[in-house]
Amino acid sequence: MEILTVVAPVFAARCSVLVADDGACVVVDPGAGAGDQVRRLVVARGLTPRAVLVTHGHADHTWDAPALSRDLDVPVMLHAGDAYRLEDPFGTLGVLDPRHDPSGPLAQALRAAGVDVASWRSPQRVEPFGAAGSGRTGDVELDLGGVRVVARHAPGHTEGSTLYLVDTGEADPVVLSGDVLFAGSIGRTDLPGGDDAAMAATLRDVVAVLPSSSRVLPGHGPATDVATELATNPYLARAR
């Protein structure tokens, strides 16, 4: 298993392309501007797409998902708790909604990337997993051809935030953490659907018990590993 990284221009969101030995691939978190790079990669490598996964429903992680779903003929998959966000990913951002704050950071990043907010179209093929509602819903093993992924519900940043544990053939999985865990920090909880108590529980009961040698690829910023975060991340220290 190989994990390739494409960085979207809006908020430098990480898009990961998981490539199995047989050429099957899964795209994770294709933010605004990532789609063209992903398409070129699929063609150049002769890959067979299986799905588009998103770690959560915020626009900087989902913008190119509908178009890639259509062009690659695969479903968009995400936790059921965030499925409603695909109808209007900006409307669920509260104060960051660029339609309400045209001079704000997201609006500026979208303009710089040439993204027209009004052009959003919800994906036609959506396959939610897990269950909506309060409380953590546990693990779901996703059947994605040659790509082996466990989706682990990790609410707090949003209701349906998810860690993807990717089997790369190493002793421990690689963790795609979205906006739950960053190097030295965590995702914000003050936007609609965020929850301080849920995030603390996620850090304590989900993140802190991951294998310490697991590599972590966050939704933004540098890669890290669980051992480093357990030793140095102040938010994990407070939650444990």
Walkthrough of the structure:
This protein is an alpha/beta fold. It has a single domain (2-239), classed as 4-Layer Sandwich (Metallo-beta-lactamase, Chain A). It has helices spanning 35-45, 59-62, 65-72, 105-112, 196-207, 226-232, 234-239; strands at residues 2-7, 14-19, 24-28, 48-53, 76-79, 126-129, 139-144, 147-153, 162-166, 174-178, 181-182, 185-186, 215-218, 224-225. The strands form three sheets. It has a six-stranded mixed β-sheet, with helices on one face. Strands 7-8-9-10-13-14 form a six-stranded mixed β-sheet. Strands 11-12 form a two-stranded antiparallel sheet. It is globular and about 45 Å long. The mean pLDDT is 94.
CATH topology: Metallo-beta-lactamase, Chain A
* Rg value: 17 Å
Beta percentage is 25-35%
Integer count of domains: 1
Distance separating the two termini: 32 Å
Number of helices: 7
Uncertain residue ranges: none
Mean pLDDT: 94
The topology string of helices and strands comes to EEEHEHHEHEEEEEEEHEEHH
Topology, element by element:
Elements: E1 2-7, E2 14-19, E3 24-28, H1 35-45, E4 48-53, H2 59-62, H3 65-72, E5 76-79, H4 105-112, E6 126-129, E7 139-144, E8 147-153, E9 162-166, E10 174-178, E11 181-182, E12 185-186, H5 196-207, E13 215-218, E14 224-225, H6 226-232, H7 234-239
Parallel strand pairs: 3-4, 4-5, 5-6, 10-13
Antiparallel strand pairs: 1-2, 2-3, 7-8, 8-9, 9-10, 11-12, 13-14
Keywords: Hydrolase, Metal-binding, Zinc
Organism: Cellulomonas dongxiuzhuiae
Pfam families: Lactamase_B
Using brief descriptors, characterize the structure shown.
single chain, 240 residues, alpha/beta, Metallo-beta-lactamase, Chain A, six-stranded mixed sheet, 7 helices, 14 strands
